[in-house]
Design brief:
homopentamer, 95 residues, mainly beta, OB fold (Dihydrolipoamide Acetyltransferase, E2P), two-stranded antiparallel sheet, 8 strands
Amino acid sequence: MNLGKVTGTLVASRKEPLMEGLALLVVRQLDEHGSEAGGYVVAADSVGAGVGEVVLYASGSSARQTLSTKDKPCDAVIMAIVDQWDVDGETVYVK
Amino acid sequence: MNLGKVTGTLVASRKEPLMEGLALLVVRQLDEHGSEAGGYVVAADSVGAGVGEVVLYASGSSARQTLSTKDKPCDAVIMAIVDQWDVDGETVYVK
Amino acid sequence: MNLGKVTGTLVASRKEPLMEGLALLVVRQLDEHGSEAGGYVVAADSVGAGVGEVVLYASGSSARQTLSTKDKPCDAVIMAIVDQWDVDGETVYVK
Amino acid sequence: MNLGKVTGTLVASRKEPLMEGLALLVVRQLDEHGSEAGGYVVAADSVGAGVGEVVLYASGSSARQTLSTKDKPCDAVIMAIVDQWDVDGETVYVK
Amino acid sequence: MNLGKVTGTLVASRKEPLMEGLALLVVRQLDEHGSEAGGYVVAADSVGAGVGEVVLYASGSSARQTLSTKDKPCDAVIMAIVDQWDVDGETVYVK
């Protein structure tokens, strides 16, 4: 799983029927120290995350293990909003 | 999931029988800001995308979760045509 | 899925019994414009590809979706021989 | 599977119900020689690993093959604490 | 699938019960020409490979398709010992 910051939203009206109802968010990847890691992913949201929030997301087939993404052509899902993380004995981020 | 722009088409007459009927498109990867990210993928099309369109595609086993790709040796599928996306409060792309 | 050129063959007599009968080919990865992309993969061949041919291959669990690779410890399969592909309105490759 | 060092912990109270009860650890990736490889992953812990320990973790669908991660939206799991590893005839690490 | 050279062994006594009995080897990745590619993986051994041998390994869910790795939290498996491979009409390696 990886850390990211929700930076935006995506709208797509013409899509696979199975994608209906999925909220799609743009997630900028963060490194272990909370800096931007240089990549992004578009992820389905299963926890009601909003722009600006720091989240944890899962990729691949694991992204289909939530109620909202089950059996859908979706390869990334936000499944937690991060409250805090610590690295090397220091708090990197606190909500 | 990742953003891409459909840049071309691919024809293959000699193929695994399961690949029959799949439309194969060349998709150039875009970054979060709509710039070319330097990579590409060949994806099956499940939504009738055309050359020049900005699309969302899924990879891995998730690419087999559409009606057209189910149980096929296909690891990337276009499952949405993007209408608009916003990042950092600004509209990056609108169709 | 990605484009590649078959550059060689691989022989392995001591192997997992499930690998028996699979033809293993070395595939050099090509970019969208047909140039060598700097990587390679060893793929099982499901279409009778030969050295020098330009092919399409699938990776991951999708590589097990052909008759010859089903349930085998194989993570890449050649499932099409490319006749032609076009990018940005120009023909990149024709067989 | 890859080697890593547990460097931190992560707390997330708002999450997919399936994530309840999973201990989430920050794992800094190590290369073959025990040096930091420049990446990290957030992994579920199935063996009671603590900060500072050198561990082995699995990614992708394989991360869901432990009792604690089964059917969960989790794509990385720590499934072993490393006692020792040797490379090129020399001991790289011993606990 | 990728080519690698077995460079070492790994011992872990505290591990997920499902990992019991798996031989874990350090595999240095080789490129198409037999040079070291700069990466490594820890793989389960399903063919009795030894340090110094050149092997073929599979990653992801395909790594769980051998008798010894089935349903285990293992994402890489050595499933063949390479006898020979040829690239561009030349023999790169012969055992």
